[in-house]
Design brief:
This protein has 201 residues and is mostly beta strands. It has helices at residues 19-22, 114-118, 138-141; strands at 6-9, 29-33, 40-41, 52-56, 63-64, 74-78, 100-104, 125-129, 149-153, 159-161, 173-177, 182-184, 198-200.
Amino acid sequence: MTSLRCLSVTSKQSILPYDEFACLNHLQTLSFHNCDNLEFFLFEQQLPSIEELYFESCESLECLSLNIFPKLQTLFIRNCQMLDMSLNNERPVPKLTMKHLYLMNFPRLVTLPRWVACAAGTLETFVINDVPNLQMDPECIITMTHLKRLHIAGCHQPFSLPCDMCCLTALKYFHIADCPELYFKNVSSNFVSTRIKSIFI
């Protein structure tokens, strides 16, 4: 088991002991699916080998620590409606270098947590789907200078695209759907250029 690279967990436990994961020194992908009773994923020690982390349909999950994943590249969270996305106001705010972030089905999420801005400089994929109450900060997007894929859907609060979208020179795929209150505010025509392979609004 010590050479295991990928682990998918479905459990009835409410708290998972650290020892169950600490011995997996080569584990890179860790997934939790339909862990209905899982409430906390908090450890004092790091899990330094984890690069991909997935939580899906863990409806009791309230707390998650990202400080324990120093090499995290991909974070996927879907249908974990009790999760406090501020990550319990972690101190210090995690200095993340992740590349791919997926936040899906969060009706209670109102603002993007501060740790998203901390990861903005390395993000290549940013997907927000079915977050109807999110009050989007458009200026956060233009700090994602390495962004290649931007997908925003199911955001029903008013928000605008920032004027300086053209600074996202790495962007290849830009999709916005089911955002009835979206409006454009002096977005430069240079933004729509040949480098973008797919635009859907």
